[in-house]
From TrEMBL:
Subcellular location: Cytoplasm
Organism: Biomaibacter acetigenes
GO cellular component terms attached to this protein's record: signal recognition particle
Function of the molecule: Involved in targeting and insertion of nascent membrane proteins into the cytoplasmic membrane. Binds to the hydrophobic signal sequence of the ribosome-nascent chain (RNC) as it emerges from the ribosomes. The SRP-RNC complex is then targeted to the cytoplasmic membrane where it interacts with the SRP receptor FtsY.
Protein name: Signal recognition particle protein
Domain remark text: Composed of three domains: the N-terminal N domain, which is responsible for interactions with the ribosome, the central G domain, which binds GTP, and the C-terminal M domain, which binds the RNA and the signal sequence of the RNC.
Catalytic activity, reaction form: GTP + H2O = GDP + phosphate + H(+)
UniProt binding sites for GTP: 108-115, 189-193, 247-250
GO molecular function, one term: 7S RNA binding
Protein EC: 3.6.5.4
Example GO biological process: SRP-dependent cotranslational protein targeting to membrane
Keyword terms, alphabetized: Cytoplasm, GTP-binding, Hydrolase, Nucleotide-binding, Ribonucleoprotein, RNA-binding, Signal recognition particle
Enzyme class: hydrolase
Phylogenetic lineage: Bacteria, Bacillati, Bacillota, Clostridia, Thermosediminibacterales
Assembly and oligomerization: Part of the signal recognition particle protein translocation system, which is composed of SRP and FtsY.
């Protein structure tokens, strides 16, 4: 499971703190050094760790904490609060178009889970009363179009395809199709590559210009740790992302991406993928994630 090692380490650190009763400044400082190491070992971005530890220390070394009846608990609460802040504080909801059709563009590298996530998101939206259309705009891998069709069939959601034509035209045509068929949300599954390249970014920018999406969500594989954060930075620079979807959090990721990506990119995590099944997508709640990390 995700965060397992981090949770274990934090628990050990906190157990020592709670066991001490009264705390000295040196105790807290020692604990902070250990928390810092645990976070670095969980592959959290170095600068993020530094800022976080500074914030926690500023609050934890004060008299209020030291003189409280349960100083250990107070320190844990501060760590919890700061982790919640770090991950975005509240749930970041999807933006919907106020008038017409809401267009959601899913972007990301190949294998990040984009096509699966398109289906999962369609399922969630459909459950909330929307009428989503899935658009197959990943034209370079013929299997990707088929894959989206299979997902659509499983979920009983319509899938718009035009084969391997210009993805900008496909995206535009899917908006017309949605108008005619009363779909109020379009989820566009765009092409991915193994690495970020200019051609891909250019194509995504052109799709963005053509259909003016309410959401451009980057699907990133949390198992790739700081690479996921770097990918997010690059995509954000080029496309001005509105949010992130972290996939494969059910795997044994150390957690670095989940803990760093919001702070580094400024983009909120909106959903997390928690398994291969189409029902395994959840809105991202920073508080729940922090509680999970702290075990
Ligand atoms: P794409 O190339 O970005 O469209 O990626 P796919 O949707 O084809 O997904 C790549 C692989 O990741 C597939 O085997 C998916 O089942 C798997 N996958 C996607 N999301 C998750 C997730 O949240 N958890 C797990 N365990 N696997 C996932």
């Amino acid at each position: 499971m995700a965060f397992e090692a981090l949770t274990q380490k934090l628990n050990d650190i906190f157990k020592k703190l709670k066991g001490k009763g009264k705390l000295t400044e040196a105790d807290v400082k020692q604990a902070m050094r250990e928390v810092k190491l645990a976070l670095l070992e969980a592959d959290v971005n170095f600068k993020v760790v530094k800022d976080l530890i500074q914030k926690i220390s500023e609050r934890a070394v004060g008299q209020e904490v030291m003189e409280s009846l349960t100083p250990g608990q107070q320190v844990i609460k501060i760590v919890n609060d700061e982790l919640v802040q770090l991950m975005g504080s509240k749930e970041a909801k999807l933006n919907f178009s106020s008038g017409g059709i809401t267009v959601i563009m899913l972007v990301g590298l190949q294998g990040s889970g984009k096509t699966t996530t398109a289906g999962k998101l369609g399922r969630l939206l459909s459950k909330s009363g929307k009428k989503p259309l899935l658009t197959a705009a990943d034209i370079y891998r013929p299997a990707a179009i088929k894959q989206l069709q299979v997902v659509g069939e499983k979920l009983d959601l319509p899938v718009f395809t035009m084969g391997q034509q210009d993805p900008v035209n496909i995206a535009r045509a899917s908006v017309e199709y949605a108008h005619k068929h009363n779909n109020d949300v379009i989820i566009i599954d765009t092409a991915g590559r193994l690495h970020i390249d200019e051609e891909l970014m250019d194509e995504l920018s052109r799709i963005k210009q053509a259909v003016n999406p309410s959401e451009i969500l980057l699907v990133v594989d949390s198992m790739t740790g700081q690479d996921a954060v770097n990918v997010a930075e690059e995509f954000n620079k080029r496309l001005a992302l509105t949010g992130l979807i972290l996939t494969k959090l059910d795997g044994d990721t150390r957690g670095g991406a989940a803990l760093s990506v919001k702070a580094v990119t400024g983009c909120p995590i909106k959903f997390v993928g928690m398994g291969e099944k189409l029902e395994n997508l959840e809105p991202f709640y920073p508080e729940r994630m922090a509680s999970r990390i702290l075990g």
